[in-house]
Amino acid sequence: MPATKKEILSRLNNNFAKLTPGGIREFDYQVSTIPGIIKLTLGEPDFNVPAAMKQAAIESINANDSHYAPGNGTFALRQAIAHFMQDRYKLEYDPKNEIAVTVGATEGIFASLSTIINPGDEIIIPTPTFPFYMAVTKILGGIPIEVDTSGDDFVLTPARLQSVLEEHPNAKGLVLNYPSNPTGVTYTQDQIKALADTVKSTNLIVIADEIYSELVYGATHTSIANYIPEQTLILNGASKSHAMTGYRIGFIAGPQELMKSVSAIHAMLVTAASNPAMAAAVAAFGTDEGKAATQEMKDAYEQRRDFVVNSLQKLGFELINPQGAFYVFAKIPEQYGNDDLKFATDLANEGKVAVIPGSFFGAGGQGYVRISYATSMENLTGALDNIAAFINKED
């Protein structure tokens, strides 16, 4: 096995030294080795890919659809995405030049941030949130401005944003992830309109990660692009809404002038997404079967959410009832203080249930754990029984 020449290690990208070790995957890997563990860790749907999507991919393969697609994705998929955005959210995007298909929403995050960040630029990131935003900002030489929203029920208020802008008047962008990973909290129409009104008076570019937009319970998702489309890049994809995580299909939508740069960077990163996966996504975003499949999954998630929330509340956990995604963000028992890593480690080793420490998600996550209910009711029932036994033992 080759060993890296020691002298060249100091010549790598200096921004990597600014990163803290990624916690979610590492913690999941560690606890996965515990015998009998029930994992409520990763945000990955437990459903199979719907039949219509699988059949579309098979037909693409059988048709020898194996040549390079356009960098921003097949036109058929961009048309399907345009239909999806208009049908669900009343947003109008031209499939010719205002949509780019990415290799998952994560590549979309990198391409979007790469478009706007110059070294030293500040990016406002409400936390707790998916840590990839902070990591990519640092890799690109930007400065993440973490805004702890835990005191406002995990919502960025216009007043708080205005306060941050007064401290950071040259901030370049705002990352807005809702429904939120890890909290499951989302914004009402009135809340998002008020936030948009604040952004409109600035030159901020909003990167709106709306990957969980189809999983909103008891309400309809409202995109901030409904109010400030000229300042917004929307990220979305098929991973969460259609259980297609392994197909790696995301997309970015935004105004043509912005998308010209975003699409160019995206194409340099990956050339284009996979043809069979894009064919499957056409069925996901552009057909009644795709819409019905999402609704079926959402109904199941809502049932699971109610079970988990009610069970945790009976055990004395403090939490905000999540209105979207498939996570519960729960305050850990008092005896652990804010040491969510110790609680999660003890729960895994002694209670045989794996959850993710909230501190992995940035400021405001300390003292919480993220619990994913993207798993079967059988697993959730067993996990909550184990958590109850663990809590009662601790008492």
From TrEMBL:
<dbReference type="InterPro" id="IPR015422">
    <property type="entry name" value="PyrdxlP-dep_Trfase_small"/>
</dbReference>
<dbReference type="InterPro" id="IPR015424">
    <property type="entry name" value="PyrdxlP-dep_Trfase"/>
</dbReference>
<dbReference type="InterPro" id="IPR015421">
    <property type="entry name" value="PyrdxlP-dep_Trfase_major"/>
</dbReference>
<feature type="domain" description="Aminotransferase class I/classII large">
    <location>
        <begin position="37"/>
        <end position="387"/>
    </location>
</feature>
<dbReference type="InterPro" id="IPR004838">
    <property type="entry name" value="NHTrfase_class1_PyrdxlP-BS"/>
</dbReference>
<keyword id="KW-0663">Pyridoxal phosphate</keyword>
<dbReference type="InterPro" id="IPR050596">
    <property type="entry name" value="AspAT/PAT-like"/>
</dbReference>
<dbReference type="GO" id="GO:0008483">
    <property type="term" value="F:transaminase activity"/>
</dbReference>
<keyword id="KW-0808">Transferase</keyword>
<dbReference type="Pfam" id="PF00155">
    <property type="entry name" value="Aminotran_1_2"/>
</dbReference>
<dbReference type="GO" id="GO:0030170">
    <property type="term" value="F:pyridoxal phosphate binding"/>
</dbReference>
<dbReference type="InterPro" id="IPR004839">
    <property type="entry name" value="Aminotransferase_I/II_large"/>
</dbReference>
<dbReference type="GO" id="GO:0006520">
    <property type="term" value="P:amino acid metabolic process"/>
</dbReference>
<comment type="similarity">
    <text>Belongs to the class-I pyridoxal-phosphate-dependent aminotransferase family.</text>
</comment>
<protein>
    <recommendedName>
        <fullName>Aminotransferase</fullName>
        <ecNumber>2.6.1.-</ecNumber>
    </recommendedName>
</protein>
<keyword id="KW-0032">Aminotransferase</keyword>
